[in-house]
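Repro:
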Amino acid sequence: MQAKRYGRQSYALPSKPRVCSFASTAGKKEGEGPLQNSFDVVVQDDTLGEKSWEKAETRMLSDTVSLCLRKAGLREEDVDLFLGGDLLNQIVSAGFAARGLQIPFLGLYGACSTMAESLLLGSLLLDGGFAKRVVCATSSHFSTAERQYRFPLELGNQRPPSAQWTVTGAGATLLTCEPTHPIAVEAVTVGKVIDLKQNDENNMGAAMAPAAADTLLAHLRETGRRLEQYDRIVTGDLGRVGYRLFRELCKQEGLELGDRYTDCGCDIFAPEQGLQAGGSGCGCSAVTLNGHLFQQMLAGNIRRLLFMATGALLSPTTTLQGESIPSIAHAVSLEVVPCC
């Protein structure tokens, strides 16, 4: 049997699970940003006609998964597993979406790293022969996250320059073991929890950048690869503060990222939109990957992509208790391969 483990954190996927289809839903502000033409759906009303923002997020995630399946010409009963999560307590958006979809469900919590975590686990399950089709999805909503982690919107609190804007959006990827699609997952790296004792909940980028650097270094070290072997390295979602810190941390380790590196939190909003340090939330990297990045791969502009979603593993309770913010990043290596 072909060896599948590169090292302590990284795994090869010889069967190369394929991206069968993908879908993204974005909010109004996201639809006004630089990636506006890459989303399948842009909602103009962030309540989606529901009675609460929480119900709206559930519907957004459920609708995005359903759209992903329709694009593949499949039904819910054709899918073996649904891997998903979100930012809310007890990942209720994903759980309630799964209630309606009736696909066997594994709920995940990796904060904003959940899109990468779900792809990583889904790919391992497919490569191990435990499933034939897995849908990986996550979501976030500005209004639900804001009142859980920060303040009621009605207060109109001023946001500091380091604060990031939680993206209203959902992304879904359908993975399959069928080699008839051009985008493949060929390796993954599981991140470690890194905590350099940053405790400012309004500066998530500073908390998450060290985790992203640790995962990138582990991936390159264990796979024996060089930066030059990737056309694009994408973190999500460090925002503008974390983006600069990540570059500096990599430079200290002798890695010059150059123009092959970008961050979903920087790309999703334009500076003139006035949204402080950029985007955040599970939906940030999810809509960017399941829109712009996959489209760039299908167009031949990116042949190999290292996608590293990052997550801050805090809660309102730990923040009030004065805890620091532990963070994590998971890496998924995707490449364009011939279809069989």
